[in-house]
Design goal:
By secondary structure, this protein is mainly alpha-helical. Helix content is 62%, strand content 0%. It is globular and about 30 Å long.
């Protein structure tokens, strides 16, 4: 599940940040890609649509890397 979530974040993020998906991985930090609040909001909305669950923006924004964000979402899906 975690790997699938990482793929989804990269899929959406690569479009938002103008990067190739291959340039991004679980260790990529949101600071490295200069993620803005609008980008984070877009990603959380995308994940909510994909997984039919609420992904709180504030909690997601606290994550430093794509991997941390995937762990956060995976934990939400397990609840």
């Amino acid at each position: 599940m975690r790997d699938e979530i990482i793929e989804k974040i990269i899929e959406r993020g690569s479009y938002l940040w103008g990067k190739e998906a291959a340039e991004l991985n679980e260790n990529t930090t949101f600071a490295e890609v200069n993620a803005k609040s609008g980008h984070i909001s877009s990603i959380t909305t995308f994940l909510e649509d994909e997984y039919d669950c609420e992904v709180p923006y504030i909690g997601f924004k606290k994550c430093k890397t794509i991997g941390e964000a995937a762990d956060y979402v995976a934990a939400l899906l397990e609840e």
